[in-house]
């Protein structure tokens, strides 16, 4: 009985988090669309729901975009196997994607719950733990010690010779248990920090 109640409570919390992240994206859309209209045609703010298998490591970074089968004269995105837009994903990993530049300039807020940790590929975990040559043992310890907590990763998009994708942000603490801090990473990257008041309101509503 206790275990069933715990499962129910965990699902309720996860549903609230999903609703809060989606509400953040929805409420910010009027601002995003106006900026797109008059100033920056590349700006985007989208909610994603990834499955663990949607995320993959490539060249030391994380990505989720996959191309469909290649055929001469036919664009990859015409194939159903190609996945790149929010409607192509329907999994338990909540995420928010923010774009503010054409080729460079994008950020990702990635929610990792205890339930999905074990399903992530080792390559993705290595990126999230920064287990490269520049790996920080303190950060790796923080990942291990938060195994029973829902955490949020603040990530930035980077380009390298071997490819492109998302890696841990260098401008803030990359891992946090605070959804508000994670959402603030998105507003900061978009240059819309005045939306932080909206974040406070959404988090208050979620706590009721």
Name the shape in a single word. globular
Largest sheet: 6 strands, antiparallel
Low-confidence stretches: 1-11, 70-74
In round numbers, the mean pLDDT is: 84
Question: Whole-Å distance between the termini?
Answer: 25 Å
Helical run tally: 6
Structural class from helices and strands?
Answer: alpha+beta
Main traits of this protein?
single chain, 208 residues, alpha+beta, six-stranded antiparallel β-sheet, two-stranded antiparallel ribbon, globular
Structure description:
This protein has 208 residues and is α+β, with helices and mostly antiparallel strands. It has one domain. The protein has helices at residues 2-38, 114-117, 122-128, 137-145, 179-190, 196-207, and strands spanning 44-50, 56-58, 61-63, 93-99, 106-112, 151-160, 163-168, 175-176. Strands 1, 4, 5, 6, 7 and 8 form a 6-stranded antiparallel beta sheet that branches. A two-stranded antiparallel ribbon has the order 2-3. Strand 4 and strand 5 form a beta hairpin. The longest helix has 37 residues, at 2-38. The two termini are 25 Å apart.
